[in-house]
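Backbone geometry:

***
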Amino acid sequence: MPASRTRAHDATSERRRLGALKVTVLAGGPGMEREVSLNSGQAVFEALQRIGHRVTLRDIGPDDSSALDLPADFIFIALHGEFGEDGTLQAELDGRGLRYSGSGAAASRLAMNKAEAKRYFLRAGVPTPDFKLADRVNLRDVVSDVTLPVVVKPVSSGSSVDTSIVRTPDALLAAAALVVDRYGEALIEAYISGDEFTVGILGEQALPVCEIRTQREFYDYQAKYIDDDTQYLFDLHLPEELLFRVQRIGLQAHQALGCRVFSRVDIMVDRETRQPYVLEVNTIPGFTSHSLLPKAAARVGIGFDQLCQRIIELSLADNG
């Protein structure tokens, strides 16, 4: 069957399963990941239109929530980072009694705060790199009491913005001071020398493991959104036991934060010990055909349109 007819057949099947809904797709927002969010929103909008839903795509931010006044059966959130992924929007939707995609306000807030999320990981027995928090008061004391190299990053931010690996005391002080000045706090995390993986979660299922390879020192903003040579590999020549452990730990991290429906968990695997360590849980990962959650879903036969539909179904079943 030609690709166009296959897509039409899939869309018809999806529409029959749930029926046409009025869906508002929210994208854009005020954060540094605005452009990525707009691309995600457009992709979701087009997918839901193909399925047969009555879809509206709207920009939204803390100063303009008029998009929520539109009559809708369901809100599909495609915002990343500030406002859309940190629980703020979710709390507003809960207050209005609107049904929406993905994790609730509490889990979203928790996942966005990397330090607090790591405390939950540790309580749940999920391995995560050691860390310290630095602020304007304790900055010099903290940086003098860590073993290099370390990773310095904002506590609540996405896309590796203002994240750096530092290997000398002077570089550590400068990097931590910059993050503290911009965000109020800096997360100083033990550096794991190894390979980076990501695991998509859909429902209660951990999707196939994806290895991320970049020519840069780590998977930074440039590698994520600009470079053409970043590789995303699913055909991995690794022991099945290791891949299973990465999936299991990813699902445990998702559950430890109380996340629901979907997420993407970023994990480092130590090159010598082969121990996986969870870095963070992304409650609203990218939603384009090139993004990692859709890529992982496709590996188990869930196309992009079906993924968007599955998220609606799972979300409605979860929050009624």
About this structure: The two ends are 37 Å apart (CA to CA). The first helix runs from residue 3 to 18. Confidence is low (pLDDT under 50) at residues 1-16.
